[in-house]
Amino acid sequence: MNKKTIIRTFEKIALYMELLGENHFKVAAFRKAANVLELDPRSLAEMDDILTLKGIGKGTGAVITDLLENGESDLLKELEQTVPKGLIPLLKIPGLGGKRIAKLREAIGIDSVESLREACIAEKVSKVPGFGKKTEQNILAEIELLGSRQGKFAIWQVEKVVSLIETELQAIPEITRFSVAGSYRRAEEESSDVDFIVVTEEPGTVREKLLAALPLAATIAAGDAKLSVTLDLEDQMDADFRFVTDEQFASAIHHFTGSKDHNIRMRQLAKSKGLKISEYGVEDENGQITTFDSEEQFFAHFDLPFIPPAVRGTGREIDRIEELDDLIELQDIRSDFHMHTTWSDGGYSIREMVEACRAKGYTHMVITDHTQYLKVANGLTPDRVREQIAEIRSLNEEYKDIEIFCGTEMDILPDATLDFDDELLSELDFVIASIHSNFNQTQEQIMDRLHTAMKNPHVDMIAHPTGRIIGQRDGYDPDVPQLIQWAKEYGKLLELNANPYRLDLATEHLIMAQEAGVRIAINTDAHAIDQLKYMEIGVKYAQKAWLKKETVVNAWPLERFIRDIIRK
DNA sequence: GCCGTTTTCGGCCCGACTGTTTTCAGTCG
Length: 568
Known about the structure:
The protein is α/β, with parallel strands linked by helices. It is built from 21 helices and 17 strands. The mean pLDDT is about 90.
């Protein structure tokens, strides 16, 4: 028996009870019990007080005892026999929850998506009390969409949709200001929809203009406070817009940024002080509503510092506020160590990239084009590298306010050798080693390649260490704990590649690396000026792993970078 | 079902929108 099994049992019990139309506080109690175990960092063996945890009571405790003693839960077995398995997918149909599903099963014997479809076509559903013609049609339409509707979208897919919507919002003069909220603002790897807070005095006008401007597959809800639509794009994605006044903005963006658990924790905190949080402000016992100029002020109202969106997760972040002072922030970033130019597969010249980094206020930067093995990317031969070094050195003479270092993103070849020899590497200031080929090798072969790079005294950093593309491919499956050990042993940096396709290393590994004392560089891997902005997503993602300023090398001052990395 | 230096009963985070009703339940985020 392990903790995961207990958690999954609670979740299943909750699901079945929901389908039976049980009291939703009862359902929530089982979900909460699952959450309590999930949030506890200890393993099952270490939890001798499991039955006395807050949130575990008589009913949930009996399930745990049952599982520990018999390896299965009588309650779950009973529920599985009572509730047809075919009902579970019905919860995926928008507009159908436990109560209505229970009602349909009771009244006309619905036990699967197929029987519901048939009942809709035979117009039996609209005869059930509480259901009407409209609901029947909606259910039928949703059943047809069930297969095509995608659950989660990768952050790079969401980013494109967010940009598109922002362009439309900017074009509407009745909008004073707006901001994306929701899981995208928290820099989640995946989101199920996008949320926007829109400040306007004329919600009706804005709603109509949005309905006219956006590519629509469906309108889910359209009121004066909110607009909810399904966008007709490559992938059909839902978008929610909340219309608020300027005074309500701070409370609204906090509320709709979430996470849900963060909000619940904040509301419990408010309640303990006799206050009530809603998306419109904070209400005291006299019904007086306070609004705020900023989220900072909102948090200050509860004696809390500003909690960055990226760390708003389980609610436990509120117990870690003393760590926020050291947390990496965008304004700490002084440099970017990984970018490409027209010398290989980048879109802009070295000078253009330098100008763009100066505009960002960076004090130093590294040019890192691909190497000869990567022919599709026009990788540099040794001769071209030396030419490039000369050009960079001369450009560096020109610019007094930014230090430009000569680097490379060198391929680690499939046979576990490096693309450049040591002599050439010694002429460079900063050497990145990367895998771009033969992802399907065994883990042993991959680790052999990475070890070669790690051992080389000229290599400074391993880029995108796992090669993953979020939601598309897992990468080359390295043994990351081992990689972190090597980074520690040989004093190498590991990258957090900030490109939203990658975000590599992932959160769990960043946490591991920081704990091991390994330094991280957050880099954009920009192939165009515009992509330098990915630093913002990268830093947010780093915050999810609670990376400190000290851990992130590109937050270090130039002098320290030269002393500890370039001249080491 | 869980919980309690206000409570062992009556709450549980809070509000918008839809569709069904004719004042509100259900669903959703």
